[in-house]
Amino acid sequence: MDFVLVHGTTQSPASWDRVAKLLAAAGHRALAVDLLTPEDLPVEGYAQHVRDQYDGERPVVVAHSGTGVLLPAIAEALGARSLVWVAAYIPDFAGGRCLRDEARALLEPDWIGVDPAAEPAKASEFLFHDCDPETERPALDSLRLFSPEVLATHPAGPAPEVPSTVIVPTRDRTLRPGWMRQAAKERLGVTAIEIDAGHCPHMSRPAEICGILTGRG
């Protein structure tokens, strides 16, 4: 099975390295795509940018954090068989609100205004607090800001028609676990899978994430 792994707003594709290696060891193909471009694109442009990086068919598409905004469009462009939302924003498909409209309900107050890519200590506090010392160094090395205006302002379109899995880290210090849990139920009609981790479980708990992705978690 193919997995297309989409980095979040504060990390590069390297954030998926550990999960990708585990997926490959289990006999799957994993591609961590890069969303960064020389100039900001519309949502459809980022979806095509991912399409240009992937040469397979019907992958499982996995997105982290704020790139949940892009996940439905990317999945449609790739003809995805299913979607996985990892500590991710789930758009307001019925109401059409954008991420900016929901930010104060979604984000933990102490996280608002923090740029972890510029402040490694803040990254350790908010993103990687559950990482062991061996993991924290590559986690910090993966920091890179990706925050085009479209992520904040794009109004939600229709809900995806393919199945979704939602992974909620119960010790997330950036996105509210309760909000993600409720959004999974109300917006996607699924019960979230909860994991004892912070906002980046693909860094701190890669084997658990791999197990969920492959159906063994």
From TrEMBL:
UniProt entry keywords in alphabetical sequence: Hydrolase
Output the Pfam families linked to this UniProt entry. Answer: Abhydrolase_6 (PF12697)
Q: Which ranges carry the AB hydrolase-1 domain?
A: 3-209
Q: Does the keyword Hydrolase apply?
A: yes
Give one GO term, molecular function aspect.
hydrolase activity
Q: Which InterPro entries match?
A: AB_hydrolase_1, AB_hydrolase_fold, Sec-Metab_Biosynth_Hydrolase
Keyword Nucleotide-binding listed? The answer is no
Output this protein's name: Alpha/beta hydrolase
**Origin organism of this chain?**
Amycolatopsis orientalis
Q: What is the lineage of its organism?
A: Bacteria, Bacillati, Actinomycetota, Actinomycetes, Pseudonocardiales
